[in-house]
Here is the input.
Amino acid sequence: MKPLIVYYSHSGNNAKLAAELRDRIGCPMYEITERKKRKSFSIFIDFLVKRDSRLAPVDFDVKDYGPVILLAPVWAGKIAAPMRTFIKKEKANLTDYSFITICSGAPGQREKLAAELAALTPQKPAAVAELWINNLLPEEQRNKIKYATGFKAERQHIQEFDEEIKFFIEMALHTKKQNAPL
Here is the structure.
């Protein structure tokens, strides 16, 4: 089967990461979209009330691909609501999948994301990786949410994570079902 990239991106950062992965792997890439354009305030509301997103229909069948690479932002330490909704809908078809994100970053967050993914699906992810925006910021701006959330990644920023991306791809594509987060 052929690998597949499925992504959701609110700010565009994870879309750029998805395009980088697509270029490196050479596989199809699909964007998860919502029926209505999301406002930043709705991110907060979704987190508080734990509601599912209303997704636009997708024009692909996940079970026709494998492994599947999922990308999405991390909001308040959790996978963004639109991707979480997609995972819930497709959980039976996500038997060989991995997750990567470009996000602010926080110690211990990767393990929490791996646990969240394992709770959402019957199968643990093959790999989980975070590329921290905090590592791209000047020292005086690190760990300050206003700088991390406003950061717009460019291709050269994504390429600064070259080694992490190579390792993630190796784990996601070649290490089947070892359930070892990065």
Notes: The helical segments are 13-25, 40-49, 81-90, 109-120, 145-149, 155-159, 162-174. Confidence is low (pLDDT under 50) at residues 175-182.
